[in-house]
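quick one before i forget lol
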Amino acid sequence: MPRELLESPHVIVITSEYGSMRIGGVGTYTNMLVDYLRRGFARLHVVEIPNSNRDPVSVREGPLGERILRAPYPRFQTRLDIDYDPKLEALYRLLPMDEPLLIFGNDSYGTYVGERIRAAARNRACLVHVPHLFASLSHFNGYGGERFGELLRTAPPRILPFIQKDVEMLSRADFVLFVSQYMLAYASQYLGGAPERYGIVGHYVEAPPVVKEHYSDEVRNVIFMGRLESLKGLHELFEHLEDVMRCLPRATFHIYGMGSLRDVLKWRGRRFGDRLVWYGYRPREEVLRVLPEMDLAIIPSLCESFGYSALEAMAAGVPLIASDVGGLGELTAWLPEGLRLRTAVGGNPLFDDVKEIGITLPREELVRVLTYAAAHPEVLAATGRQGAVLAREQHGAGNYTQRMDEFLDRTLQWLANGVPSKTTTGG
């Protein structure tokens, strides 16, 4: 990128999660994006809009030298927050609104705020939307493909605002940066839009401190990493927990993460005693240290935009079983069929009426894959080693930098030429 372009705009990253590097999630992508941008842009601002934050706007310096502004969280779960724009006036006064701006909205909330900054800017401003959930939630609730329009009319109130906002931003942002080919293809095919505005830059993974070298002939330690939510397939996993334990009779399951299902899952698994170990959230460094001690990682998600936990397991050389959904299915397409969980159409716990269509994970699939894993330790060892190579060669920091450089070249040229914002029609 030309140096004069790099030095020209102020760059603003807006997100609901920033700071702690937890395994997976929007926050991980934010941290990667900020770490990349700080190397090329001298004037970098991060706007945090943490969930439920109602405090006045504040400002501080971040650990990477970035300027961090904390702003109120927009409320559009049940209604548009009509009082939100006045709350942003204090934020505008702390941002360089007279300078050219390159704005990244990381998830629909971030882009919602970014759109307001773009509208209030007194110079050229380019808005990049980074969606994370819209396609995954659509498929999770059985509204993939041609049924997407029906979703916008009938989806449960608790998820509809997220999907609606992402769809709006796909149309109204100047550029859209997807984290997987699956999301780009979904948006292009079913939602319309302008592919020339689209780009793909997924997560990258750093080399872990230790990579697994020795593989056991028996699965004794299984790890789950992620939020304890319905989206992660945990209702299905624990509904069939007796079958799961029977397939791996000497295994201990190590559960890393927090979420709304934690107490329910602990209660449902109480009869298995110390075969289930609950860790809650742990520092990323701690999780990476224990990963090589695991014989198997299980990721039974019902929807995933990317599947970062799978990438962390791959990088550490840990054998993996994963469902075939979304970006996770794309990331783990190299796994043998015996280690891939096939999701199916079925009842979905996110709906009040369980007869509503959605995505589920059949008991037969869990039994099939876990039985295969227990009977084929040589396959687990081979895929563990192969995963480490693929993570290093295809998902390293160098790959991320190259893709992001190419994407930024387009946005910076667009910004430098003063092209007016494009609008396309969503599906």
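fyi The first strand starts at residue 10 and ends at 15.
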